[in-house]
Design brief:
With about 475 residues, the chain is of the alpha+beta class. The chain is built from 14 helices and 23 strands. About 30% of the residues lie in helices and about 25% in strands.
Length: about 475
């Protein structure tokens, strides 16, 4: 069986494609060159488990495919800088009744160049040309460096022409936040909204009245409980429009669905909203301003739970520190990822040049207890602001589960991901797992859910004070 029997490949794709039966452990630099070369050129697809030259499928079983994927990913993290943008997936097929997998890595052209491969402490730059990978020429390196001087998405020039009539929403937004003043063309030109030929910058295009592409997409959801795992989803709404309308939509989505309460005082009462209006506004503005607009297929997410609101934006903090979780919002320093978008929001008087949005959120929650303190966590591909619901007396309960990745489980159940995440950091008793899933300690739990995961080597059985417990197998499950 050959590769083109399970996927369609065009001639153009074939030029930007590399296949390996197995990753060579004795010549790691050899295949890492290809990944780096794809990133410095137009991108490409890297298949593992496919014989080079013949496209014959070699494949892996589940466990071997997962190990090969992890090795591929780890070597890239260790040797290629900055890390290329890629999507790694598994392609399943059957051969004589046996389930097998090949690994596909779709590598995008990097907006930040050159991508450098460092092996044995020697840095090198490679370029993919006409189906082959070679060292980049001096001219190519210079051109890559020149292009990378303007790597922010929003300040790159677009093909759209500026017309004042196409920005009525922005003009009205500016007027509402600037005591009725008009937003002039001169003011827009001063921040680089368009160039001398009246061509709009990418960031300016996102403010056009008729803009409705995926770059501004938001996903707003309401969950009935405390997590996404097995809780009932009450509402899921997708929305894409210009940035001003997207901001308004997110604010109204939360306002219409959040709770309201009050505290009795000796001389009356004090009304309480789930989320202080200023904190909500600042959180949404921050997500829009610092979103990584290079990341296609992503969206800002607003997730409302019983005890909190999570506002997640694609992209880690730009050129800032990576951190897991912090309550110290005032000391977070993040450089601007989108200069033009931030300048527009500053002009509209909804964002301060000094970047004090997090300070204002902290002020709104200044008098609450520890379980109602807002916090932020950042990963390599997104950052999330968590606003506790002030009308929920118990506050936010810290969830120690993590997001995990694993191969699809044969004869699996809808509970597999939640179980593997819950057991990833700590071994858990069966009774604890049952409570976490909201199920009874039954034969269905022990045999169908846990038994199958153990049989497939995703869970390892352990003893916890004489009771039966389980721990996720790190060879099959990773964070």
């Amino acid at each position: 069986m050959k590769l083109d029997e399970i996927i369609q490949i065009s001639e153009i794709e074939n030029m930007n494609m590399e296949t390996k039966a197995r990753l060579d452990r004795t010549n790691i630099e050899g295949w890492l060159k290809t990944v780096a070369g794809f990133s410095n050129a137009e991108g490409g697809s890297f298949f593992i488990g496919v014989e080079d030259g013949t496209s014959k499928l070699i494949g892996f079983d589940r466990k071997a495919a997962d190990k090969e994927r992890n090795f591929f990913n780890n070597q890239i993290n260790e040797h290629i800088f900055p890390r290329p943008t890629m999507r790694i997936s598994f392609i399943r097929y059957e051969n004589k009744g046996t389930e097998l997998f090949i690994i596909r890595a779709d590598i995008s052209e990097s907006p930040v160049k050159p991508i450098v491969l460092k092996f044995n402490n020697v840095p090198s730059i490679y370029m993919r040309r006409d189906g082959f990978t070679n060292g980049a020429t001096y001219e190519e390196i210079i051109q890559m460096s020149i292009k990378s001087q303007k790597t922010q998405f929003d300040i790159l020039e677009s093909d759209e022409d500026y017309s004042r009539d196409n920005f009525k929403t922005l003009q009205e937004f500016y007027k509402n936040h600037n005591d009725g003043k008009e937003l002039t063309d001169k003011a827009l030109a001063s921040i680089g909204f368009f160039n001398n030929s009246k061509k709009l910058k990418n960031g300016a295009v996102l403010f056009m009245d008729n803009y409705a592409d995926k770059k501004t997409e938001v996903l707003c959801s309401v969950f009935s409980g405390f997590n996404k795992g097995s809780e009932r989803i009450v509402t899921v709404n997708r929305y894409d429009s210009n940035l001003i309308d997207s901001i308004s939509y997110m604010i109204e989505f939360v306002k219409q669905r959040m709770n309201h309460s009050f505290i009795k005082l000796s001389d009356g009462r004090q009304n309480i909203d789930s989320y202080p209006e200023r904190a909500l506004f600042e959180g949404i503005i921050n997500a829009v301003a610092h979103r990584d607009y290079f990341l296609d297929g992503t969206q800002i997410q607003l997730d409302m739970f019983k005890d909190r609101l999570e506002i997640s934006s694609p992209g880690s903090f730009y050129q800032g520190d990576k951190f897991g979780k912090t309550y110290d919002l005032s000391n977070i320093i993040s450089k601007r990822r989108n200069e033009l978008i931030c300048d527009i929001l500053v002009k509209c008087n909804v964002m301060e040049a000094a970047g004090t949005g997090f300070d204002k959120i902290t002020q709104e929650y200044a008098n609450v207890d520890e379980k109602h303190k807002p916090y932020i966590y950042s990963t390599s591909d997104h950052f999330t602001l968590v606003l506790p619901d002030l009308t929920y007396a118990e506050g936010v309960t810290v969830d120690e589960t993590v997001h995990v990745e694993f191969m699809p489980v044969s004869n699996g159940t809808e509970h597999d991901e939640k179980v593997l995440a819950f057991c990833y950091k700590h071994a858990r008793k069966v009774s604890e797992i049952a409570e976490h899933l909201g199920l009874s300690d039954s034969s269905y739990l022990r045999d169908v859910i846990l038994g199958n995961l153990e049989k497939q080597n995703y869970l390892e059985r352990v003893k916890i004070n004489r009771a039966t417990g389980y721990k996720s197998n790190p060879e099959m499950v990773r964070e």
